[in-house]
Amino acid sequence: MKWPSKRFATASQKGFGMYEQALKLEEQNIDLIHLEFGRPFSDTPLHIKEAAKKALDDGIVHYGDFRGSLHFREALVDKLKNFNNITAGVDEVLVTNGLTHASFSAIFAAIDPGDEVILLEPYYPQHSGKIEMAGGCVVMAPLDVENNFSIRRDLIEEKITPKTRMIVLINPANPTGRIYSKAELQIIADLAIEYDLLVLSDEVYEYITYDDGRHISIATLPGMRERTITCFAFTKAYSMDGWRIGYLTADRSLIPAIMAVIMNDVTHVNVFVQEGAHAAVTGSQECLREMLAVDKRKRDTVVEALNGMKGVTCHMPESTIYAFPNITATGKQSTDLALEILHKAHVVVESGNFYGDLGEGYLRVCFGSESEERIREAMMRLTKFFNSP
Ligand SMILES: Cc1ncc(COP(=O)(O)O)c(C=O)c1O
Predict the structure, then answer these.
(1) pLDDT (tens digit, 9 = 90+) per residue, 48-77?
(2) Atom in ligand 1 nearest the alpha carbon of residue 246
(3) How many angstroms is it from 321 CA to the middle of ligand 1?
């Protein structure tokens, strides 16, 4: 028997990184502080839960629209206009199971076997497996490491070939915490237009920005709406990671193929989950402001502490829930150091090279996933680890 399909067998499976190593220690009841998961700490706000519960009580339990419930998509159209400055028709929005499913559907709709897709490195590992499963080839284009992981035209242009079909952009960026400037986005836009490429823009961190930082959706740049698939999710901003709810918007010419993937894959997203997300997008945004204020305090605590550790330097992330400290001055490899930290300090951080070779020399430290108290405790453990003679 031939099993599994060639598509599956050749797709890279990144696994769970340091978490797998941490599990072995957890089995010994060691108190680990988890700074490797990219998940929000707080519970889903009550009004969102209540809306989903009410939907169940009201009998919203049957098949719905493949594209997502109409009133929900109408609310998303308003949000896209007011927050992202994207003008979309209600037929240009598709509801998905989180951002993962939005990007999966878009990639499966866009990629023919042999097509090349450019990821900017360091990259988010989950984007590569689905490209390969769709028969595409992942091509890494480096970000400009020397300039705080900025976008540089020549570094991307030299990776473009006649087979290139798409560039995947994460803005704001995981793992670097960058918000790309308009000039940086214009580089991607110019390349996409010049070489007739699609852009998949992952904007899962759109709301998690600090110090008046605001990201720009690349779809709003001239000529980009018709070639950009912009993906969003409720995951991070509303602490809804386990709910699995997101959406995408694209020009109506791109929608039928993406919808065909969604229909064949999940039929449509759970209807009562959509009611919870509807409450999130239409209700008070106070929950988001509160979470951001806490995340900002945690970010400041973490970055200040990291910069006080021997051999560690860390830029202030403008967005996301990640610090990406440089550890090259320790003289250690990222994975060795992350393992040493795990075993000696009992703090779980991700090795930078989990995000590609360019991440070597870095660690990714998530400050979003634990309480403020536990974050302070983690920083004390790490300071002791790095600064002890
Ligand atoms: C850049 C990026 N895209 C997508 C996701 C996954 O989002 P979702 O849980 O909505 O599928 C994450 C989660 O960490 C992420 O960092």
Answers:
(1) 999 999 999 999 999 999 999 999 999 999
(2) 10
(3) 12
Residue 128, φ and ψ in degrees, nearest 5 = -80, -40
Question: Which residue has its alpha carbon closest to ligand 1 atom 12?
Answer: 204
Task: Please tell me the distance between residue 372's alpha carbon and the centre of ligand 1 in angstroms.
Answer: 23
| Residue in the block written with tokens 């004390």 | 380
Pocket mutation for ligand 1, best pick of 107, 149, 204 (most atoms within 8 Å of C-beta):
204
Pair type for strands 164-170 and 116-121: parallel
C-beta of 44 in contact with ligand 1 (< 6 A):
no
Ligand 1 centroid – CA 234 distance (Å): 10
d(CA 293, CA 291): 5
**pLDDT value at residue 389:** 81
Average pLDDT value for the chain: 96
CA of 96 to the centre of ligand 1 (A): 13
pLDDT for the residue numbered 10: 66
The yes-or-no answer to whether 6-44+286-387 and 50-282 have a common fold is no
Q: Does residue 252 contact residue 89 with C-beta atoms inside 8 Å?
A: yes
Task: Identify the CATH assignment for 50-282 out of 3.30.413.10, 3.10.25.10, 3.40.640.10, 3.30.420.40.
Answer: 3.40.640.10
Query: What was the pLDDT predicted at 353?
Result: 94
Domain boundaries, the chain: 6-44+286-387, 50-282
Task: Specify the amino acid at residue 287.
Answer: C
For the stretch 199-237, pLDDT in tens is 999 999 999 999 999 999 999 999 999 999 999 999 999
**Does 15 score more than 90 pLDDT?**
no
pLDDT value at 307 more than 90: yes
Q: Is residue 92 scored above 80 in pLDDT?
A: yes
Q: State both tokens at 62.
A: 């049957």
Q: Which CATH number fits domain 6-44+286-387: 2.40.30.20, 3.90.1150.10, 3.40.50.300, 3.40.50.920?
A: 3.90.1150.10
Residues 6+ apart with CB under 8 A from 49: 276
Ligand 1 contact via 219 beta carbon (within 6 Å): no
